[in-house]
Each structure stands twice: as C-alpha cells, then as structure tokens.
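From: lab user (bench 3)
To: helpdesk
Subject: output format question, protein + MTE

Hello, I'm new to running complex predictions and I'm not sure whether the block I got back is the full result or only part of it. Here's what I submitted:
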Amino acid sequence: MDMETENWAGTAMRPVGLIIRQKDPNNLEMPFDQLGDFITPSELFYIRSHFPTPELDPGAYRLSIGGAVRNELSLRYADIRAMPSRTCVATLECAGNSRVFLVPPEPGAQWELGAVGNAEWTGVPLFVLLEHAGLADDVCDLVLEGADRGVPKEEPKPPGPISYARSIPRTRAMEPDVLIAYQMNGQDLTPDHGYPLRAIVPGHYGMASVKWLTHIVAATQPFQGYWQTSDYGYWDDSEGTPVRRPLAEMKLKSQIARPRVYERLEPGRPYTIFGAAWAGVTDVIEIWISLDGGSSWVQGEFLDPISRHAWRRWKYDWITPAQPGRYTLLARARGADQRAQPDGHNANFGSYVIDHPLPIEVFVAAP
Ligand code: MTE
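Helpdesk reply: Thanks, we reran it on our side. This is the complete output you should expect:
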C-alpha cells in the first residue's frame, strides 16, 4: 500500500456499528459510507441470517461428511483446527444487496449498499476433507447444511421447518480456495458469522457460504433444495423455455461509499469520491465515474492491486461544480473479460443481483 493510499484511507471515519434491517433473525448491514481499509473490520461486516443464530458447543460439535462417499467422516472441531490451514481474502456480497434501489420496490430486506464486505478467512480447504471421504465417481453436487432451522418467511413456504442448505458443484468444491473456515480477520468466527465452522466459497454470492456447517452430503443428482430453487434462484432461458437455476457467482459491481445519498457538498471544492468494486469470475480492471447522471464518464483510480475474489477500493478526485444544484453520481466497473456493469437490473433475477450502476444523488450548495 503506498503512502497516499495509507494516508487517505486513514481519514476514514471510525466504525459506528451496523444498521438493523431485521431483528431476529439478525440482518444487519454496514453503513457503507464507513468504508475505509481494504479489510472490513469484523464488527462492521454485514450479517445475513434466515433463522435465529444457533448456539453450538465446540466440544459436542461434529461436522459429518456423508452421502456418496467411500468413508463417512464425523469430524470434531478440534480435528479441523489441527489440520493444515489456508488463508484467503474474499469479498462476500449478499445477492439482495442494494435491493432498496429497485424501482418499483421488491419484497425482502431493504438492503442499501452495506450487505457486502471484504474479509480474511482462515480454514481447511474443503477438497482435503472430500479427498479423505473419497467421493464416488458420479457425485455432481456437495450439499452444505447448517445447524439453523425454521420456516422461511418468503413464499412459497415449505410444509414445515427446514435447515439452511445450499449446494456447490463438485468442480467448484474441489478448488483449493473453497474453505471450511473457523477464523475471520484472524479471530475465531463470532456466533453471527457462523461459529464454530462455516463454508467460504469465494466469488459466489454470500448465500453459498453456509454458516454453522454441520453436514456435507455428496449428491449424485443436482440438489433441488428450497434455497436454490424457491429462494436464491433466477430465471434462465433454455431454448426459449424459462428454467429456474440457482444463483452462483457474483456479478461485476461497483459502489460509491462517499459521498452518501443526499450529501450536501460545497461548490468548487476538491472532494474525493470513494468506493469499491468486485467481481465473481473476472478481475476488475477499470472504474468509470459519471458526475452527470450517466451522460459522460471519467476514469477513477484503484487503491488496491488485483487480487482474485477480493474487492478493489477506488477513488476519483473531483472538483465539485461551481453551479449549485442536484447532481447524480454513478460508478461503473469493467472486468478483464471486457464486460462492464449493465445499464439496468435484469428482471429475470427478481429481487436479486442488483448489479447496475446505482445513482447517488448529492446537493451542491453554498454553506
Ligand atoms: N448459512 C446459514 N446456515 N444460514 C443462513 O441464513 N445466510 C447466507 C450465508 N450463509 C445463511 C448462511 C447468506 S444469504 C449470506 S449473504 C451469508 O451467509 C452472510 O454471511 P455473514 O452473515 O457472515 O455476512
């Protein structure tokens, strides 16, 4: 990190805590205007839980690995902690982040910009456990199940209580960066973030990173559970027929952290616009800012190098207009695959995947 970045990031405000979107289960977001360092402090990292946080005793805790495997495993927390670990930095974004920007409004928690964060995760690579278990040749999905249970709030509701469970394809599960994590930012996971163990699937929307992980099931058929069909699914097109598919990789996205919505800025003054950009399957290589609601674009600069699956903070040094008035700021990222963020929200994603440039309206007015 160069001096300028260090000094500049150092001007970020002190953490002030999280904003409640739903109480019980805990759904809290970061006030995104508090973005500062590359790593989001754990106490500022959003919490997205569908059911109340289970209280798990690490002594009694077991992680079972079963289904189509040669050796069923039942691992203690201490067994996992004793294995060689790996640490990676990954951005988690909830698939519903920025839902409040959708017009007309969509049901669900009205997340603003803060259901995203960038943390350092430590744990055991999932593939190591799967190699111990020995997957059958025809396994296609690994189902990850958490200890939390309940009846989902969103329609259509299943007939009774269910666990939170998501699957990832075998090919992804065998990649070395998918972790069974026990630490976040160098500390043991907090209960809200999945203590004692959670999955971390870098590059996927947060729903894939199952917290309070108790069961891994090797499946020989694509898993059709609630959390990847009814919820966290989208409409794809299969030769003219709409088909439901599970959400997976995060789309390319950028967000403005400062200024914040309806912030009042002084005319003709230097102001550093600041934000972050990330992507699930490509690297973010350019960031463009519009100061006039999308009519023209100027290039911003990155504060962080490319690091796959971690966000890149960026800035643009602006001289605010001399002319008082209302201005709409937008940020648009471009990826190494030469794709940029789309102009608008794709309705096939329903209330998820809000990846278009989000308008931040500010007022320029004399003090
Ligand atoms: N795992 C379990 N067991 N239960 C949950 O409700 N929520 C998922 C995922 N893992 C969830 C879960 C969703 S939707 C997101 S976005 C991330 O956890 C959020 O992780 P965090 O609360 O640590 O930020």
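A quick orientation on your result: Residues 47 and 224 are 25 Å apart (CA to CA). Let us know if anything else is unclear.
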